[in-house]
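Bench notes, afternoon.
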Amino acid sequence: MYNKFFGFREKPFKLVPNPVYLFLSKSHEEALAYLNYAISQGDGFVEITGEVGTGKTTLCRAFLQSLDSDAEAAYIFNPKLESKQLIQAINDELGIKTHADNTKDLIDVLNAFLIRKKSEGKKVLVLIDEAQNLPQSVLEQLRLLSNLETTQDKLLQIILVGQPELADILDSHELRQLGQRITLRYHLLPLNYDETKAYIRYRLNIAAQKQAVKFDRAAFKHIYRYSKGIPRLINIVCDRALLTAYGLNQCRITGGIARASIRELTSRGVVRSHGLISRKKVLAALSLGVLCLLAVVIWQPAIRGQTGIWGVLTHFKTPKSTEPETVNGQKPKIVNKSVAALPIQDPPIIDAPAAAIPLQNPPQDPDPAVGVLESIRELNQELGARLLNLDRFSSRQAALAHAVDLWDANLETPLLPDEIGDDQDFFRLAVRPLGLLIHRLEFADLDLLASVNLPAILELYAPNRQMPVYLTLNAIDGDRIRLGGVGGNQSIEISGSELDYYWSGVAYILWKNFRAIWGTIPGQSDYDSILTLKLLLQEIGFPDLELTADYDFKSQQAVKRIQAKYNIPIDGVVGPLTKIILYRENAQFKLPRLTPQRPAQSTIKDY
């Protein structure tokens, strides 16, 4: 669908085990080396395990293609066979012609073949994929096949490849005789973050006729966090991201596009980071949703004095003139710049005239690709148009000025020259004279920013633009957010889901180190900072801490409880983000807010 647009010879992220696309991560390279070593040494049994989607089948095919002419292999990819059927399948794969129809005769024919190949100086191996599905009786038969040997060498080498439960099966008491014969074991690991980036680029380079698509750093991070380095999940997400970018007519995969693609996959139940959704659960949820919808459709008009299905239909077909005008989606609206204007107004209620009609002709299950494009068409086009009118340097000046203003600080103009190319350096140097600091988040989402609850400068990408632009997040109320730095005294109001399409996930938070707690605790801080930290912890509800220069267990546990309350990584390490929430927790510090002020309540949990 998008091959011509991006200049691909073929789709780079197809879910087929093509050895051409095998990316040799450190783990995959080691597994391949183990297999080659086992074959060279004539080991009888080899076990390779790995999680679902880690590329075991692709590795198997690449290994078989790499074998020299002095080796012959039988590849069994459907192991749900009985003992006799398995031996027949092995003979067929090795090209052994026989009319034998019982296990003994089949083994005799196989043994004669192996002896002949041994005299020719050739090796014979059997590679069984998805071996965790082998019945115990078949595994016992494989053990007996390994007895085909001479006084010096094994005539048949057997490689078992499967999911992690294969190791548990082979370690069971019932199969201890087979387990003891396994001379080499290796567990295939998922990719790490750097390998995930290299994997995506590798597949793009293999498929590309020209370099026409680029994934930015935020996109890599979102894909890695979702996929956990599982190649199959990486392929699914990247394919959907390319489809989304194609619908937007963009050649750059931004963090926003990656986030939107992941959200689309998750909402449709196509893939989750820990497995697929059960079909029964999906059907149950859909059935419940339909029942709830019907209850609302019938019940709401009834309490207004309308009865019967005709009354229900009339209610939907004749909206009152006082209700908001029906629209197909929320567009940003320009409002006066004022954080105090929160809470943000709820979006207009959408009254759907045709809500009851489709009951007569239920639609078929939608094509996931169509669903992505439909989501794309519903994007907030006005936000995209506004981003196109911004440029990198003027927008970062305006966004920073707006963020500083929310701190009630005066930022003298002009700020800094545009020649400062690194945006983090620009923000950091600009706010230093004001006693403010900048903390850069590369992997942010709105939930995290709402928890931190401080204005943040967001890195956004306009459609078909390679350079970022910047706006300031100055308010969050539910799913409605407000962005400043548009120009003049104006802000733009949109939903969080609309922001996702343009936001890379990078955010710059302005903050103030009120108590001068320097460095990172523990490890890179002085005694005064540790004492100051303990005093701060005492003020916010931990009076039993000993005022020493030792970052002890009690202090660490207190920090972890605060981190748990604000839903940031619970590691007990006091870095910039933890300092920010500690100052937020202390009511004596006057800080700007993103969310509406609500009654204070103690939510610190035991850790």
